[in-house]
Amino acid sequence: MAAHVSSPRALKPHSVVVIDDSNVMRRWLGSMISGDPRLELAGTAASAEEARQVIKKTNPDVITLDVEMPGMDGIEFLSHLMRLRPMPVVMLSSQMRKNGEKAQRARALGAAVCLAKPSIPTPEALARLCDNIVAAARQDGQSDHATWAASDKIVLIGASTGGVTALESILPLFPKDGPPIVIAQHMPHTFLNRFIERLDRHLEQCVDFAAHGERLATGQVRLAAARDMQTGLTWHSGAWHIQAIRRGRHDMFCPSVDVLFGSAAPWGTQVGAMILTGLGNDGAKGMLMLRRSGARTLGQSERTCAVYGMPAAALAMDAIDEERDLGELPSRMTDLLFRDETLV
């Protein structure tokens, strides 16, 4: 096999515009960006009005955007920007709490990443911030894995008992800038929140709750919330979007794997679905809908399941193309979605 050689385009640093009303923060972010060989500082702005001019002049690959600014705030500016000139945006603000209202609103408008400003600028915090800016820039088609970045594919995962351990095992094996992954894991909402925070600390992908209206992009992992609304998906405007669905009277679980899988069935040829360890049969009907519409469907093998319930139910309904050991699932799904391999 020939060695991989980076193209000249891959070596070109991503240009960044920093938008923040704090002079100290602009200088600090500018210094951080200039010190990373993957990035270059194209300009800075202290307000939305300045930002318009700087973006028009420099045409950056990605911007960082504060929320609190004089005049038009960052959320309002983001809404105008994504209508008139869509581009990768990293929301960076002391107000940007992980699952807060502003973060959910920003993601729904199209922000690639929403981060709180580091309270202590440790080397680890700076490296993670730079990684997030690079990942956001690559969502605009500059990834080394252009096939993944430009694809219309999505990966769906359903799990219950034993799913936490299984997900922690396989999520690092997916391409860090691969297609978006949406997960329905049976778990109380409070524990889901902690699980998401743990995953986000340890994975290279951006992990968060699925927010209604959010436009999904490469390098994202989203978990369905366990509240009064189910999480579904829809495809429009050239992208996958999260869709909140009213919980049905007979829905036993929330989040429901069946609801998540079934919502994507109209676009089955774009979907790869996996059903992991868990009690019961949630996901079997939805996976059958997906398979019949052209999706690639995989189940976790009995010998690697903590509880061989959900995969067994899906297999009994002929909803699974293949069963694989847990550690084989990510690479097999990637092969099926992007290398057009035949099923065996």
UniProtKB/TrEMBL annotation:
The active site is at residues 160, 186, 282. Residues 15-132 form the Response regulatory domain. It catalyses: [protein]-L-glutamate 5-O-methyl ester + H2O = L-glutamyl-[protein] + methanol + H(+). Gene3D superfamilies: 3.40.50.2300, Methylesterase CheB, C-terminal domain. It is an enzyme of class 3 (hydrolase). Residues 148-340 form the CheB-type methylesterase domain. GO terms for molecular function: phosphorelay response regulator activity; protein-glutamate methylesterase activity. CDD domains: CheB_Rec, REC_CheB-like. It holds the Pfam family CheB_methylest. The modification 4-aspartylphosphate is found at residue 66. SUPFAM superfamilies: CheY-like, Methylesterase CheB, C-terminal domain. Keywords: Chemotaxis, Cytoplasm, Hydrolase, Phosphoprotein. It comes from the Bacteria. One of its GO terms (biological process) is chemotaxis. GO terms for cellular component: cytoplasm. Its EC number is 3.1.1.61. This is protein-glutamate methylesterase.
